[in-house]
Amino acid sequence: MWQTYYTPTSVDEALRLLAEHGHEARIIAGGTDLLVELQRGTRQVRVLIDVTRIGNLDRVWLDDEGLIHVGPTVTHNLAVASEVLAERGFPLALACWWVGTPQVRNRGTVAGNLITASPANQTITALWALDARLTLRSVRGERILTCADFYQGVRQTALAPDEMVTKVTFPALTPNQRGIFLKLGLRRANAVAVVNVAAVLTFDPSDNDVVTRARITLGSVAPTIIRATCAEGALVGAALSESRPERPGRIAEAADLAAQAAAPIDDIRAGADYRRQMVRVLVRRALTGLRDGTERIGFPDEPPMLWGRTARMQSIRGRSPRLAGKTVRHCDGGPEPIECTVNGKNVVVQGAGGKTLLQMLRDDLGLTGVKEGCAEGECGACTVWVDGIAVLACLTPAPRAHGTHIATIEGLSKGGELHPLQQAFIVEGAVQCGYCTPGFIMAGANLLEELPHPTRQQIMAGLTGNLCRCTGYHKIVRAVERAAEE
Questions:
Q1: What are 352-363's pLDDT values in tens digits?
Q2: Dihedrals φ, ψ of 76, to 5°?
Q3: At 480, which helix (H) or strand (E)?
Q4: Domains of the chain by range and CATH?
Q5: What is the pTM of this model?
Q6: What is the DSSP string of 74-125?
Q7: What's the rounded Cα separation, in Å, for the pair 116 and 136?
């Protein structure tokens, strides 16, 4: 899929490589969109430049001027876990919570979602409502663009081939501001948005009911994310109100104007008329939630991340001493080995520089318990742990495993004893054809290391990245509950 895979340890080195290889190169952090495009053949890239080993790029912080900074390798799950975003950038935290699945959120990054530039990408909707700016760097210098300047069409941006997004910034919400994000999909998790909506309202400090400024953004209803400016204007200068018999309220008026701003199309997920009607519904719900102060309903207090014992202490971006201070280069079929620890054993793999981690584990190491179900991050059958964190092997480049500790289903039992969750699957009859079982057990065991006594809701949220065509899930959930009890 690619020929050369670089792992630089500084931004300057990454930018030098971008300038050297030009159109043939692509920055990779999570790769959850990029690897799907490469496997489908819709994108051709000869060189990948992995920036996840560069220090301090996976941080979210609030500066002294009231600006929130999001680094380019901040994953969706890191954003969900960020106290800064939960308190002062809530629409983005909520949008990230609704991205994909736990395994996808452990690899996919906010910056990568922005660069993909799909009109259905929810972090764009949230950040546009938050008035975000993107900082782009190259060896030629640095520039800062608004969302309106950055996005130029469907999957089209102003990012030059030699540029990298080095941070995203936006003003932190003040005490008199509230924000929300809502999404409509065809299923609860891992679904592309039929419509999504974000809203940020500023209220008069002397009268908390009166709106002084509004930003409403709509996703999946136009070639790019759009602002519903007429709807925003209808809210300014008065309190949010519902409709009354004698006149429509501000909320209803704004919802109607937002629906008029939408320019949706018919596609496989929904018709244009349905999308337009759902814009009206979601904007009404969003504004009602902001008026009533219920915008945080649906955002979990303790969301399952599938970070295992590393929960809230480190991310998948952990640095390895084997990479300190030097750029590592792996080639497709080349002699540079991938060195890592798999199920407690040190391994050296030759010729896997152009493969996914799934291909390396199965083809080179014979670990066929790691299943290929979809190769697109949809089914979870290839779930493994990288440095203790659950990820999808099909969406992880094999060179990213260099210097890491990997666990697969083959290494879960110890000393001939089954893992408690494996035993619980047997007792509860949670296995039928068995194809999906390794992925479910790896996700469930990771959840139990992170949350030893999860609620049923947490179990179901933790397993949203895994699909089963046989059992109907009840026995699988019950097996996790039994393992927790025992």
A1: 999 999 999 999
A2: -60, -40
A3: helix 474-485
A4: 76-132+164-292 (3.30.390.50), 412-486 (1.10.150.120)
A5: 0.95
A6: -BHHHHHH-HHHHHH-HHHHHHHHTSS-HHHHHH-BHHHHHHH--TT-HHHH
A7: 15
